[in-house]
Specification:
single chain, about 325 residues, alpha/beta, Rossmann fold, 8-stranded mixed sheet, 3-stranded antiparallel sheet, 15 strands, globular
Length: about 325
Amino acid sequence: MNNSGVTYTLVNHLDGRYRNMIATDIIAGLSTQNRYIPSKYFYDAQGSRLFEDICRLPEYYPTRTEMAILKEKAPRFMEGFADHDLVELGAGANWKIRILLDAVPPTDRATLRYLPVDISQTAVEEASRELAEDYPELEVVGVVADFTSQLEALPNRRSKMYCFLGGTIGNMSQEEAQAFLHEVARNMGPDDTLLVGFDMVKELDVLEKAYNDSQDITGQFNKNVLSVINSQLNADFDQSHFDHLAFFNGDLARIEMHLRANRDCSVRIRDIGLKVDFQKGDTIHTENSHKFTKEMIDYMAFRAGLCIQEWFTDSRKWFSLVLMKMR
């Protein structure tokens, strides 16, 4: 694909199925008593921009903490990385991928291939275009796919480093995270690695401030998922009818984000023929962000058939980057 002189390849393995996926998920999520919307639908163009703003907030520690670890350890991660594929699962703001790429000598970087993978074509196109523009020597292949179930669609001729950064694994349930790690392990070759970012359990005040920032950017990000439903499924959600709610659930070791109706209201989702009535105080569960201990991560890796090759954390042990290989 050529865009103002920038060349990259885009491969779409969803092939028009995105709209069917979101329709199926919204019917399931809003037809149940405990209503929910999967967090993967946060990331349209506006959602991605808002999340980039969140990452710059003083209260939001995960991004800057992870990036500090990456800057220190990138030469170690990328040592001898010529002729490899760098696979980013969940494409978005590519600040972290740039840190890894900058740790590779230009002559070796010209032998690499970068593959951003996400269900959002917009996110994949933006990540592909930006990296292709800034690293013209780099081969870039954007992949529109569900990385939880379509990893076999990726090219498999070369060794890979799969990157699943930002603590995104915490958005999955324990069962989903375990299944995801198992699926990655199933598709890994003997020389492949998996680099995962884990947000660790820490003080309650630090956790809750990170998801309730003083500028309400996180609130805007949370509400934006309603705009995604409006645009994709011809719905009439009014963001002003819902308030952002985020808190730490200690029993489940996770931050929960919800949208809480601030009045009685009704929403029509025309393309799926669904009408949803809300009473004041009713909620839609939009995201979980699980926090981890070292013991939890060790156990998950073992059950997935992976071994932890190296473990990196910050001085406060707030965030961990874990490099895994097949057992």
